[in-house]
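Here's what a typical entry looks like (Phage tail protein):
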Amino acid sequence: MKLESVVVPEIEFDKIEIPNFSFFGGAKDVVTLADWGQAKINLKTSLYKNIDFYKTLFAICNLTGTRDPASEDGELKSIAYKPDTHSAKTASVDIALPDRLFKIQGAKSDFKLSGKVGEKISAEFNISGAYVDRVMGTQNITDVDAGEALLIRRLGGMTLNGNSVNLSEFSFEMGNKISFSKFTNIGEFYMSDYEPKLTLKMRLEAGGSDGFDEFKAGSSMSFVAEFKDSKNKTIFKLEIPKAKLSEQPKFEDSDGIFVIERTFVAVNETGDDNFTLTYFA
């Protein structure tokens, strides 16, 4: 992965505190259960044109990709990723520090896309997995060729109900709830629920909608965001068919220009159709 910051694993083991009241000042005893080590990793990267960076990460976010064409023999045109609540896919993750390697298995993840106009699009993955081992020894850490990072451009192609909107920044979170169950022979991470959330900051136009009417009416709208490369070719496209305001709109003063912040939830109609993230080759 091409990372924005150093990744430091957070490893936690179950522990039991045993009180000691036999005498004053008696310290508690602590018993560590090393059977179920849990690791948490925060990966911060940018949204690049290279889909190979994200295939495994999307899979452990419970996103299932539909390839066009379906055959691996044909030249790839696009991959449409949609939520798959009951996906059992997991991954192994190696975290290399200069003198040691942390090994993690059975990983699941959440993800977030965010950015501001004129800046890069950030992609963040919060991974949970089972700690397996730590191997001591010098590690070979090298750079990778990432290709072009995608930016939010002036003509970013973001629309609500088919109408272009003047956005200053946005964020989209899949909102995965990663749970961990322990049994005598299995410790399993899985996605128990997810709540996709979209947050938009946009210019308040004179006489234009501020979102209060839609919030009071409980109405929903469609949202589309196209992330393009330097040649104005769409590389990723985020589509939310039913974005419903979940909070009352908030006003901000941005150097004399009023900005409205609107928060939506991506609701479904038939299950797992909350959103689609499509990659175009």
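The chain has a mean pLDDT of 84.

More examples are in the samples folder.
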